[in-house]
Amino acid sequence: MYYLEQHKFFNDRLTIFKKEASKNYYGRCWIDGKAKEKSSKTPYLKKAKTILYAWYRDQEYKLNNDLPVHDLQFNKLFKEYIAFRKKNKKSAYTKNIDIIFNASFKKYFHNRKINSISKKIIMGYIQTRVDDYKKKNKKEIAYATIVQDLMMISGFMNWCFDANHREKKISISKKWINEVIGTKANKDTTRTYFTIAEYDKLLKISRQRIIASEKSDTRLRREILHQFIIFMVHSGLRTGEAYALKWKDVTFIDKKITINSKKHCVLNVSGKTGNRTVYTYFGAYFALKKIQELTTEAATGVANTGIFKQKFRRGLNDLLEASNLKTHQFGQRVLHRDSKSFRSTYISWGVIRGDNVRAIADNCGTSPKIIQDFYTKYIEIKNFKTQLTEISNVKRLHMNGA
Questions:
Q1: Contact by Cβ (8 Å): 274, 287
Q2: Residues in contact with 240: Cβ distance below 8 Å, sequence separation at least 6, in sequence order
Q3: 400 to 389, 392, 395, 396, 397: CA distances (angstroms)
Q4: What is the predicted pLDDT for the residue at 10?
Q5: Pairwise pLDDT comparison (26 vs 89), residue with the higher score
Q6: What's the rounded Cα separation, in Å, for the pair 150 and 178?
Q7: How many domains does the chain have?
Q8: 397 within a domain of the structure (yes/no)
Q9: Are strands 26-31 and 34-39 parallel, antiparallel or unpaired?
Q10: Whole domain around residue 113: which residue ranges?
């Protein structure tokens, strides 16, 4: 390389030089077999030496203490991250990360250096994601989709920091979304649920729509959506977990207890918290049996076939609007319902019944704290009327003078 002026230091391991393109001095050294270069941002040699000496010693310190000295590219590291997850955390969530990386992250972040990733750059990604989605799909992207993207980036950045690829930890916040696109996209849908009366109404309208269907394929889609709703409310699965479920993951249980039968399903579920066994209520049993009757592949026993081959976003939205259940007023807030509300319904009903919260959490692949902090916040006090007014043995204890 041609320098206008150069000076050697530290046994020729550090070169301080000037080049035609700038009036400032630069430093150049070789660390761990690779060249590193830094501008002193000053045209004065004495000041440049002070700055670049400190920089060189810092690089040596990092090398000697096994700290990151080379800023690797985002895409290269993300591929290593995916490989790490596939080896240690085999789940549907890992597959989703791989999909989103190739569909969105890869193009935007490309060869950006991992230590250059800042709040400004991530907010730029949010804006690009929103614009590209609207251009391609002619509608606004779901708030939950952007949140999912951010959580995936956050997990990756934490891994980079823990693996010494990144010098500073970055705390990614969902509030950044509102800074980019405003609060309109932030629709609270994740923990809203249906009351029993609303659930009955939803199924009633669903059945009416099925009967009114003029085309056989429309009737089939609506019937499977109907059974999907029943299955979700009686299983507590996440939407992604349900879509990933295959017939081989289902065990139908039909235990004979005296003259009655206790029917339920045992599911082998793969989700963002890993693999787990899920025990359903009876409704899930009958919903899956009905789908078996409706789908040829399921009836012939193709174990590797997915149970729900289609997503019901549009059909469910139309049904919710037809039932006047798309939104729900809670105090001053307007809550929006979607497919995630069925999992919330399963959890909320369990809490209202007084079921063991730990058992609900384990079955749903979450924690008791999450249930207590989030899923119960929209349950009104009137739902606990029975538990609060019918405490067993109270009357007898008072009568006995206890």
A1: no
A2: 92, 93, 96, 271, 272
A3: 20, 14, 9, 6, 5
A4: 86
A5: 26
A6: 13
A7: 3
A8: no
A9: antiparallel
A10: 74-181
Residue 185 near residue 133 (C-beta atoms within 8 A) = no
Q: Give the least confident one: 115-119, 202-206, 283-287.
A: 115-119
CA 114 from centroid of its chain's CA atoms = 22
* pTM metric for this prediction: 0.56
Residue 59 has pLDDT above 50, yes or no: yes
At position 47, the amino acid (one-letter code) is K
Let me know if 246 is exposed, middle or buried by CB neighbors in 10 A (0-12, 13-18, 19+).
middle
Please list, residue by residue across 322-344, b when 16 or more beta carbons sit within 10 angstroms of its beta carbon and e when fewer do: ebebbebeeeeeebbbbbbbbbb
Read off the CATH number of the domain in which 317 is found: 1.10.443.10
Tokens found for residue 290: 């009905």
**Burial (CB count within 10 angstroms: exposed 0-12, middle 13-18, buried 19+), residue 306:** middle
Long-range contacts of 60-67 (CB under 8 A, 24+ apart): 60/31, 63/31, 63/32, 66/164, 67/164, 67/167
Instruction: At 349, list the tokens.
Output: 């009903």
Alpha carbon distance 105, 117 (integer Å): 12
Q: Are residues 200 and 249 both part of a single domain? A: yes
For 309, the token pair is: 């081959």
pLDDT for 188:
47
